[in-house]
């Protein structure tokens, strides 16, 4: 590669990789980085001076120079991405060194980052006391995330509910969505303060508007069931849909059931899509798996597909034995038998 500048296009990805991992040489990550990054720059120059059509035709054979150059470009970009990911993102030691300098100078974001490192044991030994110190410094400079973590420290480490609430409240007043929900919890359960369900609702609503998924689900329940406020089905649906989109499992089930069963706004296609999302989750949602199979068998909300119906009902049959849930055999199902409403209510 060094004897001929053109050879950089053939060997740069491999030589850079060899230097990175010490294959046939001493590990030299600086050299690896130089090779990777220099090729990216050189490749940009080459691309600005494309071959003419005649030149391309002259080398139009299997695995010609142009093919090798293109292949090396793909491989090298892959290696270069891994190099950056491993040494800059995954391993945060350099980030820690950078942040500790800024933290000592008084930067609240870096102070919070260092607090997080000690709290979670990122690249350094876990130390709750040091985490507390850095969160406190960051909090004093107005960092609302640090205030929230201080609340956590007081709540779970120091067992001081009053202090915990004080910092959760400060963080919530600054707009932290997790703190807003926490303050709602304190009012709802009356932890260290006077229980007040209406204030709890108000704080949960603020958290929901900030995008806190579980608070959005709570809002749906408040409005749907008239908990301390008048029933409002329209707002209940609005918040349940928000929570479902943001990944709350119960909200997703309720939204799917709503589209499946609601006489005024029935939408079997949307119901099927939500059941399919639930069925594909890793926590084996048996009800969703069964209903996806049924939708495929009957052509409800999707095209009729007995192959897919068979696949999903076999999965349900297999899992229901392990979880001791109502059984239905593949043969009976394909012949039109169904679980009844009571049996369906027993699975999830």
Automatic annotation (TrEMBL):
Transmembrane segments: none annotated. It comes from the Eukaryota. This is HCP-like protein.
């Amino acid at each position: 590669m060094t004897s001929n500048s053109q050879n950089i296009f053939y060997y740069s990805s491999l030589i850079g990789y060899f230097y990175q991992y010490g294959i046939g040489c001493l590990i030299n990550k600086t050299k690896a980085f130089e090779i990777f990054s220099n090729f990216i720059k050189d490749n940009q120059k080459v691309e600005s001076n494309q071959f003419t059509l005649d030149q391309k035709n002259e080398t139009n054979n299997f695995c010609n120079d142009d093919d090798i150059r293109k292949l090396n470009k793909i491989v090298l970009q892959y290696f270069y991405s891994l190099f950056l990911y491993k040494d800059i993102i995954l391993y945060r030691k350099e980030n820690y060194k950078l942040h500790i300098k800024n933290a000592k100078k008084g930067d609240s974001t870096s102070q919070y980052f260092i607090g997080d490192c000690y709290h979670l044991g990122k690249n350094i030994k876990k130390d709750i006391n040091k985490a507390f110190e850095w969160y406190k410094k960051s909090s004093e400079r107005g960092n609302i995330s640090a205030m929230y973590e201080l609340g956590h420290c007081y709540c779970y480490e120091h067992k001081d509910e009053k202090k915990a609430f004080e910092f959760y409240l400060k963080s919530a007043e600054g707009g932290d969505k997790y703190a807003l929900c926490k303050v709602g919890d304190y009012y709802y359960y009356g932890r260290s303060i006077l229980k007040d369900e209406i204030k709890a609702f108000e704080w949960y609503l603020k958290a929901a508007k900030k995008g806190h998924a579980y608070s959005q689900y709570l809002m749906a329940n408040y409005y749907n069931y008239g908990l301390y406020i008048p029933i409002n089905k329209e707002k209940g649906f609005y918040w349940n849909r928000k929570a479902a989109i943001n990944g709350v499992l119960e909200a997703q089930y309720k939204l799917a059931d709503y589209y499946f069963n609601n006489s005024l706004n029935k939408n079997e296609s949307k119901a099927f899509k939500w059941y399919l999302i639930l069925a594909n989750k890793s926590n084996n949602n048996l009800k969703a798996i069964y209903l996806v199979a049924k939708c495929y068998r009957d052509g409800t909300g999707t095209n009729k597909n007995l192959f897919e119906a068979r696949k999903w009902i076999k999965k349900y049959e297999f899992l229901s034995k392990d979880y001791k849930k109502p059984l239905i055999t593949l043969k009976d199902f394909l012949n039109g038998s169904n679980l009844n409403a009571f049996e369906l209510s027993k699975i999830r």
